[in-house]
Amino acid sequence: MKTIKRLSIIIFIALFLTSVHSFTSQAAGNCDYTLKTKCTTCHNLGRICRKLGKKNKSKWAKTIKRMVHHGAPLNKNEVKELATCLAEENASVKGVCK
Ligand code: HEC
Questions:
Q1: Is 38 close to ligand 1, i.e. is its CB under 6 Å away?
Q2: What are phi and psi of 95, to 5 degrees?
Q3: Nearest CA to ligand 1 atom 34
Q4: Which domain holds residue 60?
Q5: Most buried among 46, 60, 71, 82, using CB within 10 Å?
Q6: Each residue's pLDDT tens digit in the chain (98 positions)?
Q7: Residue 72 is inside which H or E element, if any?
Q8: Count of structural domains within the chain
Q9: How many Å lie between the centroid of ligand 1 and the Cα of residue 59?
Q10: Rounded to two decimals, what is the model's pTM?
């Protein structure tokens, strides 16, 4: 009985970890997509890449909201998600800048 309990805890933790992992990598994937499709119509990504590592999350959120004001078609969730991605210490979105 004890082993089954222990086993189910291990399985639970494993499932939890994989779901967290797929959640974070999916968020980064969405950010790449958002950047490529919604942030390149008025200027190229260079303008964004130059600022990576220079703005914190709230500054990015402000910038992105200003872009929405200029006409970028992002919903509230996309603004939040992208601000989080762009402010990450080792921004996974850096990949789109190469
Ligand atoms: C509708 C046109 C348009 C779209 C779409 C757009 N931008 Fe911009 N962006 C501008 C204009 C105009 C400027 C220069 C004026 C300014 O800074 O507000 C600019 C400047 C910038 C700058 C440099 C200024 C700063 O504050 O660092 C960054 C970074 C930036 N945009 C990021 C983004 C991101 C991220 C997206 C996608 C969410 C995006 N832009 C989409 C029009 C746009």
A1: yes
A2: -55, -35
A3: 39
A4: 2-96
A5: 82
A6: 667 666 564 445 354 545 554 455 455 568 999 999 999 999 999 999 999 999 999 999 999 999 999 999 999 999 999 999 999 977 678 888 88
A7: none
A8: 1
A9: 13
A10: 0.80
